[in-house]
Amino acid sequence: MAQRPVWMDEDLDAFRDLARTFCAKELTPNIERWIENKQVDRELWRKAGEVGLLCLSIPEEYGGGGGTFAHEVVLLEEQARAGDSGWGVSLHNGIVAHYVLAYGTEEQKHAWLPKLASGEWVGAIAMTEPGAGSDLQAIKTRAVRDGDEYVVTGTKTFITNGGQCDFVVVVAKTDPTKGAEGTSLVIVEADRPGFRHGRVLDKIGQKSQDTAELFFDDVRVPATNLLGTAEGQGFIQLMNQLPQERLIIGVSSVVAMELALAETLRYTKERQAFGRPVYHFQNTKFTLAEVATETHIARLFLDDCVAKHLRGELDIPTVAMLKWWTSDRAMKAIDECLQLHGGYGYMTEYPIARIYTDQRVQRIYGGTNEIMKEIISRSL
Ligand SMILES: Cc1cc2nc3c(=O)[nH]c(=O)nc-3n(C[C@H](O)[C@H](O)[C@H](O)COP(=O)(O)OP(=O)(O)OC[C@H]3O[C@@H](n4cnc5c(N)ncnc54)[C@H](O)[C@@H]3O)c2cc1C
């Protein structure tokens, strides 16, 4: 029933084989250990860099793969199908590197992107603070100009790749009197004195993802670490990049629905109750018919958004619709699928339990679903 996405082509088929092989070899066998360690192996990034899986959609002249956003989607799909939710590659590839590509000067792009593409550096983006998430204008982190340097001070939290990151795009106030126009993006490399990785946080899902706090204690960076050429561009830069981040969340949500459906079909056709497979109860069939329908609709909506994004036509309200709707529907569908597993659905060794806990955050990060509805309503 699933149809081939309109944006797939032969080049992407070949790339999917490469991504699938890598994920089966390098991710699946290590997942339990990574969950225990609360992080993937740092070496994974190097290995991925060597086979060309980092910075897939960054031009080759900056060390990237020269592909498109479709390559990022394929990698994300294969990562999820391999059962991993810890490797923060979609953020590194699809978000952090793209801030540099979109706003960096030629010098910045040549200096930073090759290191992100080789896996020498792991990237992170630090917007959220203990006292400011949805209300980003309330951030307190400061980047104060002092001669040829900025002095960065503040605390960030919930930062994906926060435990391992070497390169952080920091959202900071360069002029606190100006609100949104006083906000800038400043790069902080992790080896600068005064920078500290905080503890890796305990989460209900995505347990092998090293989500962490970051501390900036009078960290001095050269003034050339300001992303772009002028202060005060931070909010516009964020506005323009957040759609791709939300599209990535749409991809993860739809793949999670597809996986949950496949797992539940397999399980209910095997599991016996009252002398017949659980699948044969009308409730099971109707529930899965509904889940299959919503999954199909979600996939079509997603593929339409991916195709539009590849043409440069995806607008902010539409991707906000995709983000809230797919993450919300996925959560409902996965909950129904978990129910059909009975008590086994509550056991973390069953894939459906992991899909359930991993999915929950998709309604929260990348801008909460409530904020997505605010954005949509402004366009109506
Ligand atoms: C696992 C994980 C990874 C993350 N990764 C990153 C990362 O890499 N980088 C980063 O910067 N951040 C990251 N975040 C942070 C994430 O983006 C924020 O948690 C999110 O934006 C919400 O902010 P908050 O937690 O401060 O919640 P709040 O903003 O305090 O929201 C609390 C509740 O109030 C609601 N609310 C707030 N404002 C409104 C409004 N105007 N109208 C209606 N309801 C509203 C929210 O929707 C929510 O339900 C991550 C979070 C998690 C959990």
UniProtKB/TrEMBL annotation:
<keyword id="KW-0274">FAD</keyword>
<dbReference type="InterPro" id="IPR046373">
    <property type="entry name" value="Acyl-CoA_Oxase/DH_mid-dom_sf"/>
</dbReference>
<dbReference type="InterPro" id="IPR009075">
    <property type="entry name" value="AcylCo_DH/oxidase_C"/>
</dbReference>
<dbReference type="InterPro" id="IPR037069">
    <property type="entry name" value="AcylCoA_DH/ox_N_sf"/>
</dbReference>
<feature type="domain" description="Acyl-CoA oxidase/dehydrogenase middle">
    <location>
        <begin position="124"/>
        <end position="219"/>
    </location>
</feature>
<dbReference type="InterPro" id="IPR013786">
    <property type="entry name" value="AcylCoA_DH/ox_N"/>
</dbReference>
<dbReference type="InterPro" id="IPR036250">
    <property type="entry name" value="AcylCo_DH-like_C"/>
</dbReference>
<dbReference type="GO" id="GO:0003995">
    <property type="term" value="F:acyl-CoA dehydrogenase activity"/>
</dbReference>
<dbReference type="Pfam" id="PF02771">
    <property type="entry name" value="Acyl-CoA_dh_N"/>
</dbReference>
<protein>
    <submittedName>
        <fullName>Acyl-CoA dehydrogenase</fullName>
    </submittedName>
</protein>
<dbReference type="InterPro" id="IPR006091">
    <property type="entry name" value="Acyl-CoA_Oxase/DH_mid-dom"/>
</dbReference>
<feature type="domain" description="Acyl-CoA dehydrogenase/oxidase C-terminal">
    <location>
        <begin position="232"/>
        <end position="380"/>
    </location>
</feature>
<dbReference type="GO" id="GO:0050660">
    <property type="term" value="F:flavin adenine dinucleotide binding"/>
</dbReference>
<dbReference type="InterPro" id="IPR009100">
    <property type="entry name" value="AcylCoA_DH/oxidase_NM_dom_sf"/>
</dbReference>
<comment type="similarity">
    <text>Belongs to the acyl-CoA dehydrogenase family.</text>
</comment>
<feature type="domain" description="Acyl-CoA dehydrogenase/oxidase N-terminal">
    <location>
        <begin position="10"/>
        <end position="120"/>
    </location>
</feature>
<keyword id="KW-0560">Oxidoreductase</keyword>
<dbReference type="InterPro" id="IPR006089">
    <property type="entry name" value="Acyl-CoA_DH_CS"/>
</dbReference>
<keyword id="KW-0285">Flavoprotein</keyword>
<dbReference type="Pfam" id="PF00441">
    <property type="entry name" value="Acyl-CoA_dh_1"/>
</dbReference>
<dbReference type="Pfam" id="PF02770">
    <property type="entry name" value="Acyl-CoA_dh_M"/>
</dbReference>
